[in-house]
Amino acid sequence: MMMNKDNFSALVMAIGVISLIVGFGVYFNSQELDKVIGSGQGGGTTNFFPSTQVVQEVGNDSIRVKKAQFSIDKSQFKKAPEFEKVTGFINTKPISLADLKGKVVLVDFWTYSCINCIRTIPHLVDWNQKYSNNGLVIVGVHAPEFTFEKNIDNVKDAVQRFGIKYPVVQDNDKGTWDAYENQYWPRKYLIDKEGYIRYDHIGEGGYTETESVIQALLNERNTELGLNSALTSSDDNNNTATETTTSASQNAQSIDFSKINSPELYFGYQFARTPLGNPEGFKPDQTVDYSLANIGSNIKPNVIYLDGTWKNNADNMELQSETGSIALVYSAKSVNIVAGGKGEINVSEDGSTLVGKYRGADLSKGGKFTTDGQRLYNLSIHDDYGAHSIVLDIKGKGFQAYTFTFG
Known about the structure:
This protein is of the alpha+beta class. Helix content is about 20%, strand content about 30%.
């Protein structure tokens, strides 16, 4: 039995506030959940020791740049592994790490529907524009999380949509991922001109620090090659002599992870970290009729609830009836869904259709979106962090829901 749409939305709105007040206090005192939420903040950065120090001497009419050379024992560093088992190349002919010897290389592990990766891309695009002529080569290693991300045409569309001009290698078999012993999206490695890994950053954040290391490694390279160019960081845009400011891209998003109280929520039984809210739960590879008619006031925060007939796939839920609904109570500033298949979706939040200033970038003025591919769709974005209830009413057999992510 499927619940009437208006009753369904009203139910979620009516009990959402009570659930949030009671539920968040209990749910977010979990140490394990703290690890999951905190994993997007970034960390695990290696200490960096430059072998070239750039010093500015400011005179009355000019700025002089001096470079001091130091000796570093590189036996403490690991040689960067080669790109292994690459299944495709975008924005480049086939390349290997050996082809890039003599350059400073930034290897970025990413996947195109990951919100944490998406938020780092403006910085990478900016660094590519600023430093590619000074010896920096960025290589994006696209290592899929979901099956649809193995389709290179999907990746090419994403590369174009995000304005990525640097080389991207497709790592469908996780050969390069495994060679680097990586476990995270995103993760950045900075490799010096001799092929040593000199810096390693996990997750988002650390952009100013990362850019400073890029500059330092380029200075090392250019000094060893006898080039006169020297890059220095400065907050003074009036200083023009060989300076590059370390500033955030205009398109970059500012995120306070301490205020996001909802973890990523997966629809597929293989990836799910929490059970469904419906009593039927996950039924691997089965088609199940879900209903909220008997849920009552037991809706919990950060738990997905379904209405309609859905097929339980390993990495998604696929709508089998002509209509269906998804309900969620969350706490964040913005919410996204990774979705695909065919569907027309009406989005309501806190009991009203999302037609005002808080409607997401992918919603029409009427609070709707139509899936145009397997990708991330931004549903709602607020001025500040807080608790909200959201309902997606779907028309279209074959709609696929993969994950909710938050910002």
